[in-house]
Design goal:
binds (2R)-2,3-dihydroxypropanoic acid; 2 domains; alpha/beta
Amino acid sequence: MPAKYTVLITSTSFNKIDPLPRERLIQHGCKIVDNPFNRPLKENDLIPLLKDVDGVIAGLDEYTRKAIFSSKKLKVISRYGVGLDNINLEAAEERGILVVNTPEVNTQAVTDLTFGLMLAVCRKIPQAHMSTQKGEWGRFIGRGVYKKSIGIVGLGRIGKAVADRAKGFSMDILAYDIKKDEISSQTQGIHFLPLDELLAKGDFITLHCDLNPGSKGIIGVRELALMKKTAYLINTARGGLIDEKALFETLRDGKIAGAAIDTFQDEPPVGSPLLTLDNILTTPHIGSYTHDALLEMGLIAVDNLIQYLGKE
Ligand code: DGY
C-alpha cells in the first residue's frame, strides 16, 4: 500500500524510549524520514529534509522563516515537547501550517529535575559523589532547602507544580509573573512580588517562563546583582532567559552561591566558559527525559499530527 503521508522526525529522543509512537505513525500510513544527524537540526540541515514532507515531529531544531518557507507540502509541525520558541510561528501561520505541542505531559518531569538540581547543587552532591568514587572521602558542606525561600519566575503549569513540591520542603513560596494569578495567591500561599524584590529575597531562584522577546535575557547583570550571595539560580526552562556572560562573571566572582543549569543559549554549549566553573551544576536539557514523559509526549505528538493530516 503506498504511503498516505511522508513524515519527518527531527526530534532526537522520539525513537529512544518505546517503538509505540513510531509504530502508530506507520499504522496510519505514514512513511518516515529520520533525522540523519541525531542532533537538533540547524536551518540549513532542515531545508532539504522539509522539501517533500507533509508533517514533522519536531524537536528543538531551527524552524526558521526560511526553513518553513522552503517546504512545499508541509501542513503540520507537531512539536514533541511544550516550548515553541524554536519555531517561527508567524511564518507557519502565513504558510497555513498548523503548529501543535504537547503541554502538560512533561510538567512533573521538569519539576522533578528542578528539585533534583536544587538539592544537588546546594548539597554539592556531584562533588561528593566524585570524591567518594576517587576514594577521597571529601565531606562537602552545603546549604539546606528546608524552610528556605524559593522565587519562581513564571507561574505557569511548571511553575505551579514547583510551588506545590516546595510545600513539601516547607519553603516560603515567592512568585513573579507578568500576570498575577489571584487564585494561586489566595489559595496556595504564594506571595507575588515584583521581579527585583523576588530576586533579592529568594534563597533559590528558579526560572519557568517561556522564551519570547519579552523574557529574553530576563536575568542579566542587574538582576544577578540583586540576588543574595548565598542564593542559587536554577534554569530548567530556556537558556536564552539568562545572559550567560553575566552569569559566568557572577559565579566566577562568587557573587551568588551557585547555579544549576539544564538549558543553554546554544546547545550543546561547546566551549562555554560556564563549563569551567565548580559552582555550577550542568545537565544536557533533560527536563522531560523520563520514560513516562517521553512516551506520552511521543504518543500525543503522533495523535496531534495524524488527527490534523487526516482532516485534510
Ligand atoms: C520542551 O518540552 O520544550 C522541552 O524543553 C523539551 O523539548
